[in-house]
Amino acid sequence: MDDFFRGRRLRRTPGLRRLVRETRLSPEQLVLPLFVEEGEGVRRSVPSMPGVERTSVDGLLDDAREAVELGLGGVILFGIPGTKDEVGSEAWAADGVVQRGVRALKEAFPQLVVITDVCLCEYTAHGHCGLLEAEGPRVRNDPTLELLARTAVSHARAGADVVAPSDMMDGRVGAIREGLNREGFHDVPILSYAAKYASALYGPFRDAADSTPMAGDRRGYQMDPANSDEALREVWADLEEGADMVMVKPALTCLDVIHRVRREAGVPVAAYHVSGEYAAVMAAAERGWLDEEAAMTEALLAIRRAGADIIVTYWARQFARTQ
Ligand code: PBG
Ligand code: ZN
């Protein structure tokens, strides 16, 4: 009996457990999403995401300062424009809310990695991620590409370190790469949301970003949660078009996909621990049904264990404060 494997030998003390821990998690692997809107002195909470706030550019700087002090890996910016229209033109406006936010951030904290989400859904009146056909809520693919490229270039011009297209149009990574290169931004990497599923877990984000589609849904462009081979095809396509990093989203419902992508992709893999994953734990914790810190830490560790190099999470600051 005594010669047998006894798993509990290595679990006996905190020191032994720490010594043999296979997966480590540290603040520099986490990216914090930040929502920026027009105005000054604005700071409003997002009801479905306790602890998450939308701010104007001045408040953004306060949040970013904390991210720097806590040693986070970076921030990813989402904009809520003052006005929306059919084509989402505020998305690429030189003085748009994200563009001003990026400029302010890079001026104040040159060392902070600033990633921008590139999509149209926060900027279009109809709330879809691309241009619509004249009839019905079908999103047009190719005409959308040029607008995404224009948006990415405007972010790069403002000083973004990385652009992250989340629209799921076919060919957008290639179009964005070409657009960036044409304007001299050869050095700006693309983090593509390559395997992005049509998920019920984005609801709180859409409250925060005010981007719920007015009609229809996103199943015509985001992936069917039933598929995983398809995720690899999306990843290969994006890598061929020039993606420098790829993202899987959501995270906990896609641990198998993260694992497969990690094994195959050969580039840094990010996973997005999305709004609904965050909101579910926070809501249960508010009721005393779950321990927030224990449940969140376990979730983030599992995402790392599955193979994510980078985790985008609303809980990044809280995690860093526990270290
Ligand atoms: C925009 C975008 C979304 C998210 C990230 N970028 C929303 C969507 O696709 O509807 C979701 C993030 C989250 O739920 O935390 N395309
Ligand atoms: Zn979108």
Write up this protein.
With 323 residues, the protein is an alpha/beta fold. The chain has a single domain, classed as TIM Barrel. Helices cover 38% and strands 15% of the residues. It has eleven helices and ten strands. It has helices spanning 14-20, 57-69, 97-108, 142-158, 172-182, 203-209, 229-240, 255-265, 275-286, 292-306, 316-322, and strands at 30-37, 43-45, 53-55, 74-80, 114-118, 162-165, 191-196, 245-249, 269-273, 310-313. Strands 1, 2, 3, 4, 5, 6, 7, 8, 9 and 10 form a ten-stranded mixed sheet that branches. Helix 7 crosses helix 8 (255-265). It is globular and about 75 Å long. Bound molecules: ligand PBG and zinc ion. Zinc ion (ZN) binds at residues 119, 121, 129, 166-167.
Question: What topology emerges from the helices and strands here?
Answer:
Layout: H1 14-20, E1 30-37, E2 43-45, E3 53-55, H2 57-69, E4 74-80, H3 97-108, E5 114-118, H4 142-158, E6 162-165, H5 172-182, E7 191-196, H6 203-209, H7 229-240, E8 245-249, H8 255-265, E9 269-273, H9 275-286, H10 292-306, E10 310-313, H11 316-322
Parallel strand pairs: 1-3, 1-4, 1-10, 4-5, 5-6, 7-8, 8-9, 9-10
Antiparallel strand pairs: 2-3
Helix pairs in contact: 2-3, 3-4, 4-5, 7-8
The structure holds ligand PBG and zinc ion.
Ligand PBG is lined by residues 117, 119, 121, 129, 166, 202, 205-206, 218, 274-275.
